[in-house]
Fold this sequence. Notes:
Elements: E1 2-4, H1 8-15, H2 30-36, E2 41-47, H3 52-58, H4 63-71, E3 74-77, H5 84-93, H6 97-100, H7 114-120, E4 125-130, H8 134-139, E5 145-149, H9 154-168, E6 172-177, H10 179-187, H11 192-214, E7 217-222, E8 228-230, E9 240-242, H12 248-251, E10 252-258, H13 260-267
Parallel strand pairs: 1-3, 2-6, 2-7, 4-5, 4-6
Antiparallel strand pairs: 3-10, 7-10, 8-9
Amino acid sequence: MRAEMTQVAATVAAILGANPPAAANPRPIRPVVDTLAGAPRLAVVAIDALGEWTLARHVDRAPTLAALGRLRRGTLRSVLPAITPVNFATMATGAGPFAHGVRVRTDPLPLDTVFDRLRTVGKTGATASRDLSSVGKLLAPRADWGLISAANLDSEVLTLATSVISQHRPDFILVHFLDVDDGSHAGGPSSETAGEALAATDGRLRSLLPALAEREYALIVLADHGQHDAEPADNDPHHRGTHSGRVEADVLVPLFWATPAEVAWLAG
Length: 268
């Protein structure tokens, strides 16, 4: 099953009983909605730069994602340019880049978001992200609880997410982990550095599951874009990761989803 990034906002809204944002692609990802509709709460975990290409090379380092994939699996296509602020703006609004106008994380986001639509039906939303991230800059201000890691560490993002889930039970939470992007940029997505970053992120996802299970959250795991290995520059003999959007590795990302009962089973 392959879907578009513009469908994510309508999918979240449909699962939680709200209309999609005004400028959104109104067509949700039907297999996801059919499975998760009516769930009491929903968590979306976004693993920055986890492309299908990257995951295929390091899947042995990601047992939690592998277990999710045995339940259900799809692929999303990022919008272009395949960069973080553009795709998170699309994820939240359901609109393409020409409609939302975001190119960098400090741009204003003038459109209606899924957080705004949930509020119209009495539901709350939260984010947990790094201070310098696109989610922290673009989307945290739109949430009821926009939690920020001042230390800019994924470990603190996990702590913040677990805390807000346990204390406030938001109907929707978006959790943004960035280590895979950092590791892939540093050594290229096929590198040991990227594999180590994915292993750490998979462990954080696993650590989040008990809090989600206790509060009956359904779960979606996705990414904003992928990466590919760039050729070494003349002045730098090392491979680096990049995501120009000109190759499939940059735009095809995995999509996983699980019911609250399955989240509880995975949390085991």
